[in-house]
Task: inverse folding
């Protein structure tokens, strides 16, 4: 029954046609327009003349914007690193949980996914702000401690100074790690779950402790999972917009915030377009690096 | 030679309410090739995994060289295991796999390399140290697993279904090699298997398990010729079981009357069983002779009185196995008896065809009498 597409061109075209039209109409065409914009300049308030200038790209790599690009890469990188450090033990724990617990734990990982990002971000604000739950909790302990101190005849602790947890880089990183953790845990889990458990037993049997087993057997064999986890965490983190916008302070803007400003307040579409495409090229580079790494470790896949 | 190396003392392992291993006491001696044999789910693998340290006994103790190791973690035990899936590390070369356990022990590099080379030579993988496991065949991967375990010079080598993943021809070859290997290194081997042929061919002693209980511990020939229960008789090889009553039980001979057989079963030895109680006579198919029926005089093998140990029947089924053939012969009363016979001449020259009426007879020493 197996037929080459050449023998059933009409069927093939009928199947391929609609998605192709969809892609061209709603993805490639707008992309091409924005790409063209990036080589143009504003004429008046609404007109854009596509003049083939590289001015927008030249402006984008000025130190001011280059710094924000670098900062975005740094923030996304740190987020990815933290997600990996937190996500690996979590994925490992789920792998070794009983089948019943496994389903529940995976559900718990997925649950935030199904909640609107905006709601989750506002919830974080409620937790972190000056009068938020963290500070309230700390204050409660502080007062309790103070009361205890007076009870045993010591000086009271003085007034509680709330921690500044919101509108800074800390809040942005925390928010990004929180949002992106499932992206890291799921591919790690799928890689670890496929791992033949007798390999771990073999390592223990040969005299290795648990730490050595982790670093010499589990981690090397999980590298494909780690690579895809890193990639699908890093890419959305790099383009993060909402989290730095709502949780960040004046110095925690990321590249997506700058792009947004060009299209809105600054009304400089050509420059925004150039920044967008630079961001996309960065993403492509990340994907390319992963592809190269993957090709280098084919035997680790088995 | 009979210095005990491993002792299970009343070991029980429960998973929830189910006892996977039920009050097992067992001693394995130094230098033995010991097989744990039983159908799947009988607890043999659990027993092996308790020895390796991957499971802890719910009750009882396990001793290695007289030391209680029940609470010693797997990486501190003087035993090494060859896993059913081999569990060769796919991201390491063959040599790195074998060296892994030595690196853990901080064996100096020069000695380590020498021992790895020696171990690879031992399992006939010399020169393949640089290969990755995915470049090896299944049989070669198993040798890597063997070398990796043996290089640690364990007190006991544990083998979990070592031959089950190999094809028939290779299995035959590895059987011989495992035997030679064990003689060469002189290490005690404990093997888990569900394959009775494998256990009989390899082991110096076998333990037959069923439903977590130890059924019989004996040499392969004793297991086959003198099973202690219907389960063991039936599990090891083929058998014809005749339920009956012990009619005569003298020191010199015994007679069993079975409602399934039109004749008495005569034994040339006493049984010291329950006179008049229920017993089972187990006769192996290859111990029953087939004779062409020429007249109504039953054949007599000379060691049983006339009218015993010989019965008439009709061949109802035959299976040609090359070297031998098996027959199902229906006797008076409808009972079918399994008979195995070597094909001494070419098949087309043999006399025993479907529908033929034949005599079945057996020696007075052949039946094994089972009390349970």
Result:
């Amino acid at each position: 029954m197996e037929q080459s597409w050449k023998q059933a061109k009409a069927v093939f075209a009928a199947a391929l046609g609609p998605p192709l039209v969809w892609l061209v109409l709603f993805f490639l065409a707008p992309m091409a327009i924005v790409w063209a914009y990036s080589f143009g300049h504003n004429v008046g308030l609404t007109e854009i003349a596509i003049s083939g200038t590289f001015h927008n790209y030249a402006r984008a790599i000025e130190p001011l914007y280059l710094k924000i690009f670098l900062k975005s890469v740094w923030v996304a990188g740190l987020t990815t690193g933290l997600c990996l450090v937190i996500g690996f033990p979590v994925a490992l724990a789920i792998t070794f949980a009983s089948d019943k617990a496994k389903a529940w734990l995976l559900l718990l990982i997925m649950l935030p996914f199904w909640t609107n990002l905006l709601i989750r971000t506002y919830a974080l604000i409620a937790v972190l702000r000056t009068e938020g739950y963290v500070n309230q909790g700390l204050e409660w302990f502080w007062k309790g401690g103070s009361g205890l101190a007076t009870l045993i005849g010591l000086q009271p602790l003085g007034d509680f100074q709330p921690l500044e947890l919101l509108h800074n880089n800390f809040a942005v990183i925390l928010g990004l790690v929180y949002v992106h953790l499932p992206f890291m845990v799921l591919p790690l889990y799928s890689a670890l779950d496929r791992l033949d458990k007798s390999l771990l037993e073999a390592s223990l049997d040969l005299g290795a402790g648990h730490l050595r087993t982790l670093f010499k057997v589990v981690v090397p064999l999980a590298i494909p999972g780690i690579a895809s986890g890193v990639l699908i965490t890093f890419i959305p983190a790099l383009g993060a917009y909402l989290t730095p916008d709502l949780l960040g302070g004046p110095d925690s803007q990321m590249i997506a915030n700058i792009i947004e400003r060009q299209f809105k307040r600054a009304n400089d579409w050509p420059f925004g377009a150039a920044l967008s495409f630079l961001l996309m090229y960065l993403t492509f580079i990340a994907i390319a690096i992963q592809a190269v790494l993957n090709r280098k470790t084919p035997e680790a896949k088995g | 030679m009979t210095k005990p190396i491993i002792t299970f003392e009343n070991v029980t392992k429960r998973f929830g309410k189910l006892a996977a291993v039920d009050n097992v006491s067992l001693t394995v001696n130094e230098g033995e090739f010991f097989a744990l044999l039983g159908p799947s789910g009988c607890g043999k693998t659990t027993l092996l995994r308790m020895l390796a340290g991957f499971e802890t006994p719910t009750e009882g103790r396990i001793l290695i060289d007289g030391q209680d190791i029940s609470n010693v973690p797997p990486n501190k035990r003087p035993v090494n295991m060859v896993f059913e899936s081999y569990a060769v590390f796919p991201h390491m070369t063959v040599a790195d796999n074998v060296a892994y356990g030595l690196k853990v022990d901080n064996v100096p590099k020069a000695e380590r390399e020498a021992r790895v080379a020696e171990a690879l030579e031992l399992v006939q993988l010399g020169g393949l140290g640089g290969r990755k496991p995915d470049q090896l065949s299944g049989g070669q991967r198993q040798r890597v697993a063997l070398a990796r375990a043996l290089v640690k010079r364990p007190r006991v080598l544990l083998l979990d279904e070592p031959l089950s993943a190999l094809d028939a021809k290779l299995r035959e070859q590895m059987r011989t090699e495992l035997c030679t290997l064990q003689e060469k290194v002189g290490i005690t081997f404990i093997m888990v298997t569900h394959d009775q042929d494998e256990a009989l061919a390899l082991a110096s002693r076998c333990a037959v398990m069923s439903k977590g209980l130890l059924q019989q511990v004996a040499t392969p020939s004793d297991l086959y010729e003198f099973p202690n229960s219907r389960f063991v008789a039936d599990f090891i090889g083929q058998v014809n079981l005749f339920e009956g009553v012990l009619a005569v039980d003298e020191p010199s001979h015994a007679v069993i009357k079975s409602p399934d057989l039109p004749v008495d079963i005569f034994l040339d030895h006493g049984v010291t069983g329950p006179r008049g109680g229920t017993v089972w006579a187990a006769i192996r198919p290859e111990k029953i002779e087939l004779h062409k029926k020429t007249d109504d005089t039953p054949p007599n093998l000379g060691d049983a009185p006339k009218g015993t140990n010989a019965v008439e029947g009709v061949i109802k089924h035959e299976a040609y196995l090359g070297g031998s053939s098996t027959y199902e012969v229906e006797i008076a009363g409808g009972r079918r008896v399994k008979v195995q016979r070597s094909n001494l001449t070419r098949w087309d020259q043999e006399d025993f065809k479907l529908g033929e009426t034949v005599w079945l007879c057996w020696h007075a020493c052949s039946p094994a009498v089972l009390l349970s």
